[in-house]
Amino acid sequence: MVEKAKDPKADPKTATVREYRMTELAEAAGITVRTLRFYRERGLIPPPRREGRLAWYDEHHLARLHTIAAMLERGHTLSVIAELNEALESGRDVSEVLGLNPTEETPVRLSPEELADAFAGEVTPENLAAALELGYLAPDGEEIVHISRRLLDASTALVRAGVPLAEVMQAGARVREHADALAELFLTTIRAHAPAEKFEKLRPLAKAVVEAELSLALDRRLAAEKD
Question: What is the rounded CA–CA span in Å between residue 108 and residue 117?
Answer without folding.
Answer: 15
